[in-house]
Amino acid sequence: MDNSSELNLKNPLIEAASRGPGQLPAYSRIAPDHVVPAVKWLVQQTEVRMAALVKNLEGTSNSLESKSWEAIMVPLEAVGATINSAWSPVTHLFGVFNSPELRKAYDEALPIMVDLDLRLGQNTAVYQGLKSWRGDAAAWSKLSKLQQRIIDKRLLAAEQSGVDLTGAARQRFNEVEKQLSQLATKFSNQLLDATKDYAMNLLNQSDVDGLPDHVLELAAHEYARRNKAADKDPSEANLKIDLKAGPWAITMDGPSFIPFMEFSKRPDLREKLYLASIKRASFGERDNTPLIHDLLRLRREKANLLGFKTFAALSLSSKMAASVSEVRELLEKILGAAQPAARRDLEEIKAFRAAHAGLDGKPMAELCHWDIAFWAERVKEARYQYSEEELRPYFPLERALDGLFSLVKKLFGVDVRPGDGEAHIWHADVRFFKIYDDVGKHIASFFLDPYSRPQNKKGGAWMAGCLDRWQSPTGLQIPVAHLVCNGTPPVGETPGLMTFDQVRTLFHEFGHGLHHMLSEVPHSEAAGINNVEWDAVELPSQFMENWLYHVPTLKGLARHYQSGAVLPEHYIEKIMASRTYRSGSMAIRQLQFALADLELHEEFDPAGNVSPFEVQNRHMARAGVMAPHPENKFLCSFSHIFAGGYSAGYYSYKWAEVLSADAFAAFEEAGLDNEASVAAVGQKFRKVILAQGGSRHPMELFIEFRGRKPEPQALLRHEGWL
Ligand SMILES: [Zn+2]
C-alpha cells in the first residue's frame, strides 16, 4: 500500500462513508495520507447531493407533497451521516493518536470542513424550504412532535447564524461575527501568553519551605526548561536538575500554582503568586480589559441584530432554562444554602489556625486570600489522613469496569460484554465492548481508550459519538461511542490502577456514553446527546458519579488488585466524609462567576460608565465570605465566558448539578438498597431521559421522569448544607 493512487482507491475513510450506514471506522487502516483526499471527496459528494436537494426544493416549493420528511429531511440526514462517517474518525484520531503527519493533514483539512459546515448551516434554499414548511399548517401537522422539534432547532440555529438578515444588517452581522471571533482568539492568546511567561523563581532553601517532593521536582524541571531555552552556551544546555537543591520555578499553571498555595510556608511568596494570578492579563501589552469591553458591546449588538434585547436573552433562547430570572432564582436559592456553609468553612480555618499559630511562619495577623488554600489543606490533612495513592491498589481498571457494568445492568437492565477483536482499534490498549438489551439484542457498542499516553493523546476525558443511532432508509444504524479516559497505565506486571478521581471520571464519561448508546430516537439529529440543550447535557454524566458514594456500589468495585480484599471501612468513611469538604466555599466561587456573567450579558450597559470589574467585585462581595482583593481583575482571565462557549451560560454547571442530584434523589426515595425499586426507577430513567435524548425539551423529559420541575433540595442535601 505504498502507492498513493492505490491509497486513494483504498481510502478507508471514503470506503466506510460510501458503503452506507453502520460502518465502523477501520482504525488500524487509516493513515494521515487518507485525510485530505477524503475531505475533498466529502465536499464534492455533499455539493452534488445538496444541489439535487435545492433543485427539488425550488422546483416544487409550493406543493404539499414536496414538504415531506422523505423529500427534505432524509437527504439532509444522509448528508450528515456521510460527513460524520468520514470525518469523525479523523477528529477522533487527532485527539487520541496524534502524529506530526496527522497534524499536518488535519491542519489542511480543517478549514475545508469548517467552510463546508458553514455553507450547510447557512444554506438559504434549505432554510426557506423549512420555513415555508413550518408555515404550512397542513403539511406541518403531518409531522411527529420529534420531527417538528428537529426542524425548529434547525431553523433556530440558522437564524442565529444570521441567515434571515438582509442587506446592511446581514453585512453588519457578518462583520460583528468576524470581530467577535478575532477578539475571543486574542483574549485567549493573551491569557495563555501571560500565564506562560510568568514564573516565580525560587533560589534558596527557605523559599521552598513546606513544598512536597513532587512539587519540587516539577518546579526544578520548570526552572531548567525555562532557562535552557534562554541559554546559548551548548555546554550548559543540559542544566542539572536537582529537586532538593533547586533552583525552582513556580508558574500559574494549575499543577504548579495550586500545590504551592496549599503547601508553601512562605506567606510573602504566596501573596506574590496570588497577586500575579488575580492580575493576570490585566495590564501592559497583554491587557484583556479593552477586549472585554469590545466583546460585551459587540455581543449586545449581535443580539439586537437578531431581535433580542440582550445577549443573555439570545444565549438562553437555545437552552433548557427559560429566562434569566429563572436562572437567577435558582442561583440565589443555592447561594442561600451555600453561603452559611462557606462561612463555617472560614470559621473552621480561623479556629484551626489559632490553635496552630506559626505553622506557616506567620504570627496571627489578619487572614488573607493567599492564606486560605494553605490552611484549608492543613484542616483537610488533620481530618482525613489519607492520600489518593493509598487508594489506587483498590481500583484496578478491570475491577472498576466490572463494578460499573454490573451497576448498569442493575439500573437499566442492559448487558455489557467484551467484543474485542470485532473492531479495528488505533492502539493495543483500546477495548471494544457491545451492549445487549434484556432479550439479548445487540443495541450499541463502544470503544474505550482507558490510559494516558502523553506522546500522542490529549489529556482530559471525554465521550464522543462514533456513529449516531439512525433509522436510515436501508436499515438501522446502532449507536457507537468513543469513551476516552486518561487513567494510570499498567507498569510491568502491575495492572492500570486508578485514583478515586479517575474512577469518578470513568463513571462520568460512561454516563454521557449511556445517553448516546441507550438512545431510541430514530433520527440521528436528535439521537443520543445530539440536540440536547447544553445546560442539560451533564445530567446523565453527573448522575452516574453519585453512585460512587453509594457504599455497596463502591465496595462492589473497589478490591485490592493482589489480595482481592474489599476497600477497608476507614477509607470508605473518609471518602464519604471528604465529599462535602469545603463544598460551600467551592460553590460560592462558581455562583459569583455565574451571577457576574449573567449581569454582564443582561443589564450591564457596554457603552455606559460602569466598569465590568465593578460588576465582578459587587458579586464577589455579596456572594462571597471575604471582601474581594481591591486589585482583583479575575474577568481578564475568565476565558469560559470571553473565549469559550459559556457566555451567559456559566450557570450551566450548577443548573445541571441540580438536575443530576434531583434525578439521583428519585432513586434514594425508592431506596438505594431495594433492588426491585432501583430497577423500576432505573427503567424509567432509561426510557425517559436516556432513550429520548434530544427528541424532546429537557424540561418536559425531566417532569415526566420526576413528576415535577427540578428542585435544588437534593443538591443542597448532597453538598451537606441542609
Ligand atoms: Zn461531562
Give the key terms.
722 residues, alpha+beta, Neurolysin, domain 3, 4 domains, five-stranded mixed sheet, two-stranded antiparallel ribbon, 9 strands, 6% strand, disordered N terminus, binds zinc ion
Account of the 3D structure:
The chain has 722 residues and is α+β, with helices and mostly antiparallel strands. The chain folds into 4 domains: 4-164, Orthogonal Bundle (Neurolysin, domain 3), CATH 1.10.1370.40; 198-265, no CATH class; 286-384 and 582-650, Neurolysin, domain 3; 391-578, Neurolysin, domain 3 (Orthogonal Bundle). Helix content is 57%, strand content 6%. The chain is built from 29 helices and 9 strands. It has helices at 4-9, 12-18, 35-59, 69-96, 100-121, 124-135, 137-141, 145-160, 167-197, 213-230, 254-263, 267-278, 289-305, 311-316, 324-355, 369-383, 388-391, 397-412, 500-517, 539-546, 551-557, 569-578, 583-600, 612-623, 639-642, 652-670, 675-690, 698-706, 713-718; strands at 200-202, 248-250, 415-418, 431-436, 442-451, 462-467, 470-472, 475-477, 480-487. Strands 3-4-5-9-6 form a 5-stranded mixed β-sheet, with helices on both faces. The chain has a two-stranded antiparallel ribbon with strand order 1-2. A hairpin with a 2-residue loop joins strand 7 and strand 8. Helix 11 crosses helix 16 (369-383). It is globular and about 85 Å long. The N and C termini lie far apart (66 Å). The protein binds zinc ion. The site of zinc ion has 4 residues, from helix 19.
